[in-house]
Amino acid sequence: MAGDKPRYLQDNRDIIWSLIPLVLFIVIIAGIARSCSFSPGGPTSGPVPQFDINAALTFDAAELDFPIRNPVVPDTWQPNSGSRGTASGDGGGDVSTVGYITDTGTYLQLSQSSATEEALVPWVAGDRRASTGADFYDGNSWVHYDEEGSEPIWVTDLGDVRVLVTGSGSTDEFATLATAVGQAEPID
């Protein structure tokens, strides 16, 4: 037995024999809890959570002191999330955020805020970023904040509200959402 041998005589076999009962115990507990599964082909994506984007944005429009828009996106995009927060710091303000899963399976986040662009971008990105250019969609200038290794961020100023788009979507999907935002009227 390993405990009877002097330490300098113990080898890898002793370690393996000591770990076998521990591994079996972990497998039994995981099986009882049913919190693990075996998937030899890799992970599979589950169903997209259902989220009532119309109700969420209508509620935010009634509660917040800036205009909220509900852009018309392709029918194949599924709204899956929403939240409210407050961008802090100089120029901070309330933020209404919703998310979509596009037909290609990527995620796009749409945030609308009374905060300034200078406060909103670091609040969403988690750090300061420098603008890398701009494009026009439906008459609005969208400033790009692209950084290697991070999701792109696009921001436009619609006067009394800043709109920010970020996520893992393609440039075409960003452009689709930016155009839809420009065509959307504020919710009454």
From TrEMBL:
Keywords: Membrane, Transmembrane, Transmembrane helix
Membrane is among the record's keywords: yes
Superkingdom of source: Bacteria
Transmembrane domains' residue ranges: 15-33
Region ranges (Disordered): 72-95
InterPro entries documented for this protein: DUF4245
Protein name: DUF4245 domain-containing protein
Organism, scientific name: Rhodococcus gannanensis
